[in-house]
Specification:
Layout: E1 7-9, E2 15-17, E3 21-22, H1 30-41, E4 46-48, H2 56-70, E5 78-83, H3 90-104, E6 109-114, H4 122-134, E7 138-144, H5 148-157, E8 164-168, H6 176-184, E9 188-192, H7 204-213, H8 217-227, E10 231-232, H9 239-245, H10 255-262
Parallel strand pairs: 3-4, 4-5, 5-6, 6-7, 7-8, 8-9, 9-10
Antiparallel strand pairs: 1-2
Helix pairs in contact: 1-2, 2-3, 3-4, 7-8
Length: 279
């Protein structure tokens, strides 16, 4: 974890940056384009979007601007998108992948995920992802919001195990059991909403730890993610915050501070429950 280009090697050998930019709830438009461009300019190499966000077109424009301004190659970037629930069938998922590529203006994705484990539909979608992967059209495949029982059910029939499980993960939702299960099966855990939608920024215990290191609460949480071997994608559209979120490679949390942050867990979600959603 030396710098913003530090990577984690997935079980298929593909290298994924430890830290990236998330764009959930960022509307398509100039602010989004600028945020992606700014992130790339400041050393970010991983950008995470999804079909349901409705902003793949803007993300693609930001990527092209970032490549042009930063004088880097497409191959230097790691781009993720996700198939939405209404497209979770074999043919539908293949078509959804094509649609995402078209909107992003890219020839391939580095990572493609099933966004939610819709009962009775995600296995067919996984077969489609396996096809895309075997054809060399996507570098890595994975899932999002899958609990242990979803992963077990998927892997019963899967030819290829997921490389990533992207889940809600923050100090109020540490998901230890799930994390251990993923580790045992070489599935890399990735955090969405690492800052708990901003709700943790005024937590007194985290503020105390932050003041000890001369860092912000956001930086402490991102660092906690990385030291737990969890890839993370904090969201921001503000240049200074994008820079600050990545300024986490010049310090290390002690074991005691890591444990103290772990103890903040309350199994509390700000997003939907993967076992009880209706969309």
């Amino acid at each position: 974890m030396e710098n913003l280009q530090s990577i984690k090697t997935l079980h298929n050998g593909v290298e994924m940056p430890l830290l990236g930019l998330g764009v959930f709830r960022v509307e398509d438009g100039q602010e989004l384009i600028d945020a992606v461009k700014i992130a790339i300019k400041n050393g970010y190499r991983s950008i995470d979007t999804a079909a349901i966000y409705g902003n793949e077109v803007g993300v693609g424009k930001g990527i092209r601007k970032g490549i042009e301004d930063g004088n880097i190659a497409r191959e230097d970037l790691f781009i993720t998108s996700k198939v939405w629930n209404s497209e979770l069938g074999y043919e539908e998922t293949i078509a959804a992948y094509e649609d995402s590529l078209t909107k992003l203006g890219l020839e391939y994705l580095d990572l493609y995920l099933i966004h939610w484990p819709v009962e009775g539909k995600y296995k067919a979608a996984w077969k489609a992802l396996e096809t895309l992967y075997k054809e060399g059209r996507v570098k890595a495949i994975g899932v999002s919001n899958f609990q242990i029982h979803h992963l077990e059910e998927l892997m019963k029939d899967a030819e290829i195990n997921p490389m990533i499980n992207q889940v809600e993960y923050h100090p109020r939702l540490t998901q230890k059991e799930l994390h251990n299960f993923c580790r045992e099966h070489q599935i890399q855990l990735e955090a969405w909403s690492p800052l708990m939608a901003g709700q943790l920024l005024d937590n007194e215990e985290l503020q105390e730890i932050a003041s000890k290191y001369g860092k912000s609460v956001a930086q402490i949480i991102v660092r906690w993610d990385l030291q737990n071997n969890v890839i993370t994608i904090p969201k921001s559209t503000k240049e200074q915050r994008i820079i600050d979120n990545a300024n986490v490679f010049d310090f290390k949390l002690t074991k005691e501070d890591m444990k103290q942050i772990d103890l903040l867990n309350k199994n509390h979600r700000v997003g939907p429950d993967p076992d009880n959603f209706d969309f």
